[in-house]
Amino acid sequence: MDMVQETLGVTEETLDPQDWADVQALSHRVIDDAVDYLRDVRDRPVWREMPADVRDVFAAPLPRSPSSLAAVYDEVSRSVMSYPMGNIHPRFWSWYMGSSNFTGALGDFLAAIQGSNLGGGNHAAGLMDSQVVNWCKQMLGFPASAGGTLVSGGSMANIIGLTVARNVKAGIDVRQHGVAAIEKPLRFYGSDQIHSCHRKAMEALGLGNRALRRIPTDAGLRMDIAALRAAIAEDRAAGFKPACVIGTAGTVNTGAIDDLRALAKLAHEEDLWFHVDGCIGALIAIAPDNAHLVAGIEWADSVALDPHKWLHAPFEVGCALVRDAVAHRKTFAVTPEYLESTPRGLASGEWLHDYGLQTSRGFRALKVWMALKEHGADKFGRLIDQNVAQAGYLAGLIEAEPELELAALPTINIVCFRYQPGLAGEAPKALNTEIMLRLQEEGIAALSDTTVHGQHWLRVAITNHRTRREDLDLLVRQVTRLGRQIAAEHPAAF
Ligand SMILES: Cc1ncc(COP(=O)(O)O)c(C=O)c1O
């Protein structure tokens, strides 16, 4: 460095450290702390509120002058690492997310160190990206010839599948002429339990929310196939073009799985695209005890799955698979002259940005690849079965506790229940919401809530390789303790 400065008389800067040995020592500390952090996660609260001085850190203005990396790390350690969302904790069961893993975190670190851009090109990361997509196909029983891409998560994976569906079924070149030129308005179908990301997808695709017909569900919250058939016939008669049916393999409310075989058959008969939102349940295909629940997923035209859920990859990584690889590429590929391929060299590899909306893409594959290599896919399958069995165990505990009420036996890993000491009207909702908030605030467990069959329920989604049955025993004890305590504090209300 000094040679350049001395020779040319200019100061040239870099972000690289002045003293690599310093950085090495600090990095060892960071890794040691990270290992301790994960090892001891069970001993910490699931979640805790941030005090005002911590919140203030995030209101500080742009730093214009430097700090030492050690000081920066200390601040992160104090203000960020101590106040996580909590989803790596064994008693986090809110919404629906995986619990991450150390190997995956190392993968993210190494991916950032290598720094490759997965827009494509001839380099190892590019091949690994395609390999992980191929592994996803193998896990779901999709043909090797199918297309696919890694994306930020399930919402984006669904958008990829639905965009291909729209373009294939539009009857015109939507890419050139836009949705306004589509002769008959397209209709998509999903159950009334469909995830909210599909609404966003329909809006972003220019089709509009109303083009997604919500089909009623049966008592088990699976799409009513007869009602779907009737809706398609009604739409055809009214001049719409039925284009796509979205089956859900694992609904976010209760984990219900649509009859994928029946939907595949119906889609084939009616000439519809068959997309499966498998963000929750597609990976059940690798779980020996429960794989039968998602039979038929391999017949889909496209599937969205989510390695950052049941493969526990650190956020973010989703995957879209499209049976017709040509249709997939035709939906997104654009080759400007500055991204043309060359016969040899760096630009001779595949351009992976041709399979989605992003140009620059992160190296998401490495965290998935490393964890799959380390543990083997079979272990991930067993962990999925373990979570499903734990949900059954929790349901049993709830049924055995007179003050608790189970909404329904779980299909997979989602359990809806409530504290119900014989209350009526709005009281159960108020009481259970308070229980949920206190469980969070006391750092005991993180649950969320939902409405099923018009009633309010607490909701436990066990997508967690750290959860043990003793955690579920504790949950039941704590819910009943809090229920009684809150009722005693507000005798007039409950
Ligand atoms: C059924 C379903 N689809 C889609 C999504 C969206 O996935 P992501 O949060 O990875 O975007 C979720 C998220 O939980 C989901 O449960």
UniProtKB/TrEMBL annotation:
GO molecular function: carboxy-lyase activity; pyridoxal phosphate binding
Keywords: Decarboxylase, Lyase, Pyridoxal phosphate
Essential cofactor(s): pyridoxal 5'-phosphate
Gene3D superfamilies membership: Aspartate Aminotransferase, domain 1 (3.90.1150.10), dopa decarboxylase, N-terminal domain (1.20.1340.10), Type I PLP-dependent aspartate aminotransferase-like (Major domain) (3.40.640.10)
UniProt superkingdom: Bacteria
Membrane-spanning segments: none
N6-(pyridoxal phosphate)lysine: residues bearing it: K309
Pfam families: Pyridoxal_deC
Record InterPro entries: Aromatic_deC, PyrdxlP-dep_de-COase, PyrdxlP-dep_Trfase, PyrdxlP-dep_Trfase_major, PyrdxlP-dep_Trfase_small
GO biological process: amino acid metabolic process; carboxylic acid metabolic process
Similarity annotation: Belongs to the group II decarboxylase family.
PANTHER family: GROUP II PYRIDOXAL-5-PHOSPHATE DECARBOXYLASE, MIP05841P
Protein name: Glutamate/tyrosine decarboxylase-like PLP-dependent enzyme
Natural source organism: Mesorhizobium sangaii
Classification lineage: Bacteria, Pseudomonadati, Pseudomonadota, Alphaproteobacteria, Hyphomicrobiales
